[in-house]
Amino acid sequence: MSGGAATALIFRNERKATVRVYWVDHSGELQNYGDVSPGNSRRQGTYLGHPWVVTTEDDTGLVCFLPTAAEATAVVR
């Protein structure tokens, strides 16, 4: 999807294991944006219409997020 207005997502990991954050690029490919360790959060700048996927460390899918116009927290449980 093409990008819209700038915004941000805060990825908060409430799991007992590290999670991996990916941006889904315009070709549908996952682009690794790093890991979030248990109990921690990370703020990620993004754009409206840019989908994000969170997986386990072995890349098992957990959840997808789409940003909102206001900065939002994406809680991973």
Care to give the gist of this entry?
The chain has one domain (6-76): von Hippel-Lindau disease tumour suppressor,  beta domain (Immunoglobulin-like), CATH 2.60.40.780. With 77 residues, the chain is mainly β.
Give an account of the 3D structure.
The protein is mainly beta. Helix content is 0%, strand content 56%. It is globular, with a radius of gyration of 12 Å. The N and C termini lie far apart (26 Å). The mean pLDDT is 96.
Relevant terms:
77 residues, mainly beta, Immunoglobulin-like, four-stranded antiparallel beta sheet, three-stranded mixed beta sheet, 7 strands
Topology of helices and strands:
Blueprint: E1 6-13, E2 19-24, E3 30-36, E4 41-47, E5 52-56, E6 61-65, E7 72-76
Parallel strand pairs: 1-7
Antiparallel strand pairs: 1-4, 2-3, 2-5, 5-6
